[in-house]
Amino acid sequence: MTGPSRRARLLAVVTVALLAAGSAPAAEGKRLPPASYGRTVDKGFVVEAVPAARMDPRLLRQRVAYGAGEPPGTIVVDSTNRFLYLVEKGGTAIRYGISVGEAGASWSGEAAIGAKRSWPRWTPPDEMIQRSPEVARHAGGLAGGPSNPLGARALYLHQDGRDTLFRLHGTGEWWSIGHGATSGCIRLMNQDIIDLFDRVPLRARVIVRPHRPIDLIVKTR
């Protein structure tokens, strides 16, 4: 083989290798530890297991790429697509599947977490009692526990120091996640609201966008 021909072939091989390297997929980002949805006891109450294998995997807690621009620590609720995002540093967010009730679908805007409660007491609002008279027996309030509609945790959203009556809360009705609900605000599975509760402080910023999806491309990392 002549010198020029050999050099040409080597150049071609190197060029192909470089092109292949340039088209190779980027390495995956750091994954969250596997989300645990098993049965557990929390503060004296049983949190029942969620059959995660029966759920759409997109609705399970996971870290995703995120590029909508909110600062780290912001909670973004995308009611249209049934996701809640906790924005992190480095272009990622922790994404949780949610269920949106009538109250959740009717409220949007910005707020801050004004209170955090474990196994909170629930008092049905007047409009719910009018719509569902059977809940009137709880007009004086229902103590926290597995049968309480607010689930294991609740984050209370305030605007200008006033309670909006809008909640991010838990539910034992795992099958409702990813769907609409006849009542309530924004529900997460009990295991997920416990995780979110432990990650966010009081006065964390919350953005609720009920009528349009977030304009970004999300992929699991």
UniProtKB/TrEMBL annotation:
GO terms for cellular component: extracellular region. SUPFAM superfamilies: L,D-transpeptidase catalytic domain-like (SSF141523). GO terms for biological process: cell wall organization; peptidoglycan-protein cross-linking; regulation of cell shape. The keyword Chaperone does not apply. The active site is at 169 (proton donor/acceptor), 185 (nucleophile). The keyword Glycosyltransferase applies. Keywords: Cell shape, Cell wall biogenesis/degradation, Glycosyltransferase, Hydrolase, Peptidoglycan synthesis, Signal, Transferase. Pathway: Cell wall biogenesis; peptidoglycan biosynthesis. Pfam families: YkuD. Residues 1-26 form the signal peptide. Belongs to the YkuD family. This is L,D-TPase catalytic domain-containing protein. It comes from Aureimonas glaciei.
